[in-house]
Amino acid sequence: MSFVKFLNENSALRQASRYDGYLSFIPETHCSITDKQPAHRYLYNDNFYWLEVKDSIQLSPQQLEIHTNMQDCLWIHMDLSGRSVLLTSPPRPLSTGEIQCYKQSIAPLSVQLNDGKNWVFMIGILPANMERLAAEYPAIRTWLNMDHTGKECTVLGKMTLHPKLFSVLDALKRISFRPFGTYYLLMAWNLRIFDIVFNEAKEETDTEQDHEVRLYHKTITYLRQHFCEEGLTLQRIAESLNVSVRTLTRSFANRPHSVSAYLQELRLVEARDRIMASDNTIVSIAFSLHFVCQKSFSKLFKKRFGYTPTEWREKMIRKRSLVN
Q1: 272 near 266, Cβ under 8 Å?
Q2: How many angstroms separate the CA atoms of 253 and 106, rounded?
Q3: In whole angstroms, what is the distance from residue 250 CA to residue 258 CA?
Q4: For 135-151, how does the pLDDT look when each residue is reduced to its tens digit (9 = 90+)?
Q5: Cβ–Cβ under 8 Å, residues 259 and 219
Q6: Residue 9 to residues 53, 62, 183, 251, 252: CA-CA distances in angstroms?
Q7: In this structure, are residues 95 and 39 in contact, taking their beta carbons and an 8 Å threshold?
Q8: Is the distance from CB of 68 to CB of 49 less than 8 angstroms?
Q9: How many angstroms separate the Cα of 33 from the Cα of each of 64, 78, 125?
Q10: Is the CB of residue 48 less than 8 Å from the CB of residue 190?
């Protein structure tokens, strides 16, 4: 049974039929994988988990859950490409080329992959190994002695990927899958990663920039949960997140969308899906998603998707008739 669960599988867009990640030596038949899931590979035993996701995500962020059946796993989380987010409270975002080493105190562990190209590699270490690792790595020993009571996630340290780490990752390309021997090869390979990460990762500092990044991802999550509600103004959003409108707006600076533009994007995508999947009138769909008027809605819809709402519905009807 897979320990990885994708919550919105249809948001994945396969780049190629052949998987080319570092764990590509693991046969697809060895994993519980469907065509609707993002391309990925995984392996696990009684001591470690290995998980890699390499794919493009479209339309909406992809959320995956990692079910380890126990808390307090230690994770080395490498963001090779894209912007993954550890969905804790508060959320912990990673940028391309960043590594976070953290302990989960909740189960399952939830990770969000944002729109665009994503490449994430994760190594999970089960609690039974902690004391033995602490005997070899002072950073883990110091961290284990700290009080983590009440925290969903505690970060041991952060670092950026560098050539030495890429060289260790590239070593995986020389492994050939063997049902028995592969586990031992990967456990030996882990030691090379541990020697770098546990000796070089630095304790995180909560800078103003870190706070703005966390607020940005927290706002994205809030908007995705509430975008269908009426009266979703900047003031109301800011109050719900316990920040000022100015702070909220600043967290979206240099991002693809402003707060209002992202809210509009969510509503347009939802309107497109409703037009395709229901027989409700376009006027009723527009007003149910709080667009000011049908004329404004049609103009925004065509600018975003290249069709008017009516043209889109007719296109979908023709497509269904061809399939049937």
Answers
A1: no
A2: 32
A3: 9
A4: 999 888 887 777 766 67
A5: yes
A6: 13, 7, 28, 29, 27
A7: no
A8: yes
A9: 13, 22, 23
A10: yes
Pinpoint the alpha helices (H) of the chain. Answer: 130-136, 138-144, 163-170, 181-200, 208-226, 234-240, 245-251, 259-277, 282-288, 294-305, 309-323
For the record, the structure tokens of 218 come out as 């927290």
How many residues appear in the chain? 324
Q: Tens digits of per-residue pLDDT, 159-184?
A: 888 889 999 999 999 999 998 999 99
Which two tokens mark 290?
């709080």
Residue entry with tokens 């190209």: 117
Rounded distance, CA 31 to CA 16, Å? Answer: 18
- For residues 98 and 79, the answer to whether their CB atoms sit within 8 Å is yes
Give me the sign of the Cα torsion angle 139, 144, 149, 155. Answer: positive
Q: Nearest CA to 50 among 32, 75, 72?
A: 75
Q: Tokens for 203?
A: 């304790």
Q: pTM score, two decimals?
A: 0.64
